[in-house]
Write a structure and sequence with these properties.
With 311 residues, the protein is an alpha+beta fold. It has helices at residues 13-24, 81-105, 124-133, 147-151, 182-189, 244-256, 287-293, 297-305, and strands spanning 3-7, 28-32, 41-43, 46-49, 52-53, 57-62, 110-112, 141-144, 161-164, 174-176, 194-198, 202-210, 213-222, 235-240, 261-269, 275-281. Strand 3 and strand 4 form a beta hairpin. The two termini are 23 Å apart.
């Protein structure tokens, strides 16, 4: 029987759904809970992790590497420096173990997606710059620790801005009022970098890419019109057809990072209909999206992991 590794919490909805789709196709799902010590063994003809023999594995889907937080905090919420150094060491060793295993397996098995793609969550400004340099439409973006650069936003563009997390998924997108002085900007920065983007007036669109094909897309509209982040609050989801240019950008973005499975996010500008590229996600949530749009993400992903084309 063909065996496919699923890396992540076994109770996560995406893991559960994908396991069902694999079993429907006669394959065995091998659960690898990345939150635990990976217990990787490589050598003497053995390839093991989490107590599972992976020697005959066909492919792996990396849903969540379970990397522990590199920060230790007190009861008051302050960071403890020495414990944080130990936590950072644990975090690095955990990531190194999984990366070593998955890089080794990728020589003969399909890994969706390689661990290196997960770094995108922590380098959002770099990701945006890469798209811009490739000629893809992106929002005007300023990522800075400089109060003067942040204060200069007041004199640029339409005057509406949002603040985004430098690390994807950690915080929500919020409206940003450009500071009127260097001192006000310094208060916003608080010694850390801020990523500010021009606010695109329009609708959020998510497209799914699998094995070099855009399998479907939908608009995700917050029911509260003033909401800056479509992940928060009630939304309306409606399946749409992507224009050819946006589809090309989605495929190009996924290909640029070596992702054979990805969710690519756009903003569709209301005034022009232009699709502005935001980001590419290597391990997106898809169960709720699938239920609300009818797009068979899990079935197509299972087929991809088994080396088949499914429509």
């Amino acid at each position: 029987m063909t065996r496919v590794g699923l890396v992540g919490p076994p109770e996560r909805a995406e893991i559960e759904r994908l396991a069902i789709r694999l079993e429907e196709r006669g394959a065995e799902a091998v659960f690898l809970d990345a939150r635990r010590n990976p217990e990787v063994i490589l050598g003497s003809g053995r390839i093991e992790a989490s107590g599972e023999n992976l020697s005959g594995i066909r492919s792996l889907y990396v849903c969540d590497l379970g990397i522990p937080s590199p920060f230790a905090t007190t009861a008051e919420g302050r960071i403890d420096v020495e414990p944080s150094l130990r936590a950072l060491d644990r975090s690095r060793r955990h990531y190194a173990s999984w990366k070593t295993l998955l890089d080794h397996l990728s020589r003969r098995a399909l890994v969706v997606n390689p661990p290196d793609t997960y770094i995108l969550h922590a380098i959002k400004p770099y990701e945006t710059t890469q798209y811009e340099q490739a000629g893809m439409p992106v929002p005007f973006t300023v990522s800075t620790t400089d109060p003067e650069a942040l204060a200069a936003l007041t004199g640029h563009g339409p005057g509406e801005w949002i603040a985004k997390g430098m690390v994807g998924g950690v915080s929500h997108t919020e409206a940003l009022q450009p500071p009127r002085s260097r001192e006000e900007a310094a208060g916003i920065l608080e010694g850390a970098a801020v990523m500010a983007q021009e606010r695109i007036q329009g609708d959020n669109v998510r497209a799914f890419v699998i094995d070099g094909e855009c399998i479907g897309a939908a608009e995700v509209i917050p029911l509260t019109g003033a909401e800056s982040d479509s992940r928060r609050g009630a939304t309306r989801v409606r399946r749409i057809a992507l224009p050819l240019e946006a589809e090309r950008d989605a495929l190009s973005a996924a290909r640029r990072w070596g992702m054979t499975f990805a969710a690519v996010d756009f903003m569709r500008e209301s005034a022009t209909g232009r699709f502005v590229l935001l980001e590419c996600n290597s391990a997106p949530f898809f169960v709720n999206f699938e239920a609300r749009t009818g797009i068979d993400v899990s079935g197509r992903l299972a087929a991809h992991l088994l080396g088949k084309r499914s429509r």
